[in-house]
Amino acid sequence: MAESMLGLKRTCRCAELSEANVGQTVTVMGWVAKQRNKGGLVFVDLRDRSGILQLIYEETECGAENFAKAEKMRAEFVVAATGTVCKREAVNPNLATGAIEIRVKETRILSESETPPFHIVENSNTKEDLRLKYRSLDLRRPDMQRRLILRSQMIQNMREFMAGEGFLEIETPILCKSTPEGARDYLVPSRVHPGNFYALPQSPQLFKQLLMCSGFDRYFQIAKCFRDEDLRADRQPEFTQADMELSFVDVDDVIDVNERLIQYVAKKTFDLDVELPLPRMKWIDAMNDYGSDKPDTRFGMKLVDITDVVKDCGFAVLSDAAAMKNGSVRGINVKGQGGMARKKIDALVTFAKGYGAKGLPYIQLKDDGSVKCSFAKFMTEDEIKAIVERMGGEKGDLLLIAADQNKIVWNVLGALRLKLGEELGLIDHNKFNFLWVVEFPLLEWSDEEERFVAMHHPFTMPMDEDWHLIDSDPGAVRAKAYDIVLNGVELGGGSVRIHQNDIQEKMFEVIGLKPEEAQEKFGFLLTAFKYGVPPHAGLAYGIDRFAMLMTGAESIRDVMAFPKNKDAVDLMSEAPNVVDPKQLEELSIAILKVEETE
Question: Which of 2, 403, 445, 481 sits between 20 and 30 A of 215, alpha carbons compared?
Fold first, then answer.
């Protein structure tokens, strides 16, 4: 039978006690992690969010009634215990409170528990779907609680820093107009305006620019964002951003305040020293060297361009790619893997095809000095030797080559580099390599739409020195855009925004957006721009990704209290789900039956 707390008050959390409290009478409350009955003694490990504390029940001290309660306790019972803090005879060095224990005088069972569907332990091997179904139990695990506590502290420290820099925290709407921002919107039907819909914000982008037009100068918000897109380890349909916008600034100003923010949060939350200034890398250099616009710089294995070496060779796969417009031939040198088994190389070929490669030519430089080239019959010895020399090949190395359009070559080799870096143990997981990637292209060509589209969004400012190319070579125009990267993951990104009418109109023209379409999609922002727009710029961090990387979690689901699974389903609350037909009727919505196709 559960008991009341009446007359009891918790004096502290479990792990807030230490040897300094020896001799004091305290009251602690929490969950039973473990109970051990030794006959005349019952030991209970009591757990709360601060940690674990050992309780001792001795019948001669606590009395028969309290001792009987201790004997009854099982895992996940919620109990209260009052007693004296004492030194432990057998110190447990693995426990923060391992030098002390409480000799209980009085106890109450506040709530009993059924047998949980899995053990509440650190680093549980329980399947994730089961943990997500019983998320309230999963969140009791000490490692999960530590991550969420650190996430909370991280956000608190961000707010503290931003307030000190003169930023105002201002909330923006959750129910918005649907505007194209690169992913599908989540739509919310309006009951009072039948047939009309709100959209949940993919970001506060337009509203924070409006705040700059309103003269607020420096805006900041911990913002909820929503995107209906395919999921992966670092994506969720709803996620959290640390969002900011500043007036009268340029690229260096935004980078400066954010470097100091990162340094402040890393030190205060995680006791990590971050040396400033952070390195910067141009987008084109990141792609050429790492095959990625979010390069992991914790290890080498850079891409090597061999286009000029193979442009006239006898192997058409290489020479044709070298002759393509925007084509190239590049490779990576996998040191010490020249003896890799054929089966493993075949697996790499299959992996590369998953990223768009048609194949994966390779050269094995054996330890005995022999050379095995998968395309040797098309090449002369001198041509093979030239490739090996350009790629810095030595005895024992494996050279992997990709040939195609630059975009495909970068994707293939960038992915292979990361896969091999992990499998070969080349990545130091104790490193935190922050990096700015700057000077992104303003536009990218869409084969699907057969036109240029904005790489970030259509309000991104071009670099002044490139603007003259907007008509003759739009793809060569660089943007005043920047991403902050940590260990190969994009933490956040932003740009300087366009504030001149002529540049904005030209930008719309280049991406094929007619004036009436621009007005329809962005009218409320463009109207505000008619009445004096300050130069402004901004940036947004993915809080979930930041917390994931800094706490060593494998997925952002491990730093979110109630995430969805890989299918965007909340297994605990069973959302999404069907609703009452009356609700649909009130919203003027009819559900169409979709015929299944074989």
Answer: 481
Question: Which residues have CB under 8 Å from 83's CB, separation 6+?
Answer: 25, 26, 55, 62, 102, 103, 104, 105, 106
CB 446 within 8 Å of CB 474: no
Cα–Cα dist 544/242, whole Å: 10
DSSP 19: G
Angle at alpha carbon of residue 562, lines to 556 and 563, rounded to 5°: 45
Burial class (CB in 10 A: 0-12, 13-18, 19+), 555: middle
Q: What is the pLDDT at residue 522? A: 85
Q: What share of the chain is helix, strand, coil (3-state, %, to 5)?
A: 35, 25, 40
In words, the CATH class of domain 299-427 is alpha beta
Q: Which of 537, 491, 591, 590 is nearest to 205 (CA)?
A: 537
For 312-338, give the secondary structure using H, E and C. Answer: CCCCHHHHHHHHCCCEEEEEEEECCCC
pLDDT digits (tens, 9 = 90+) for 274-284: 999 999 999 99
DSSP string of 465-516, one letter each residue: GGGGGTTT-GGG-BBSEEEEEETTEEEEEEEEBP--HHHHHHHHHHTT--HH
**What Cα–Cα distance (Å) separates residue 592 from each residue in 194, 214, 575, 595?**
17, 44, 20, 9
CATH architecture, domain defined by 145-282+435-440+479-499+534-581: 2-Layer Sandwich (3.30)
Q: What are the angstrom distances between the C-alpha of 225 and each of 238, 433, 589?
A: 6, 27, 25
How distant is the alpha carbon of residue 515 from its chain centre?
A: 36
Q: Mean of the pLDDT values across residues 1-15?
A: 92
Cα atoms in the 13 Å half-sphere on the side-chain side of 350: 6
Q: What does each C-alpha distance from 24 to 67, 82, 480, 534 come to in angstroms? A: 21, 10, 62, 62
Q: What is the CA radius of gyration of the chain?
A: 30
- Domain formed by 14-111, architecture: Beta Barrel (2.40)
One-letter amino acid of 325: K
Q: Which residues contact 447 (CB under 8 A, 6 or more apart)?
A: none
- At 2 the pLDDT is 85
- Assign 432 to helix, strand or coil: coil
Residue length of the chain: 598
Q: How far apart are CA 341 and CA 585, in angstroms?
A: 63
Identify whether 534 is preceded by a cis peptide bond (ω within 30 of 0): no
Q: Which of 16-44 are b and which e, b meaning 16 or more Cβ less than 10 Å from the residue's Cβ? A: bbeeebeeeebbbbbbbbbbeeeeeebeb
Domains in the chain: boundaries: 14-111, 145-282+435-440+479-499+534-581, 299-427
* Residues 76, 61 contacting (CB under 8 angstroms): no
Q: Which of 36-40, 206-210, 251-255, 446-450 has the lowest mean pLDDT?
A: 446-450
Distance CA 137, CA 132 (A): 9
Segment 43-86, tens digit of pLDDT: 999 999 999 999 999 999 999 999 999 999 999 999 999 999 99
Helix axes 501-510, 515-528, angle to 10 degrees: 150
Can you say how many angstroms the Cα of residue 88 is from the centroid of all Cα atoms in its chain? 43
DSSP state of 149: H
Tokens matching residue 222: 């911990």
Under a CB-based contact definition with an 8 Å cutoff, are residues 70 and 41 in contact?
no
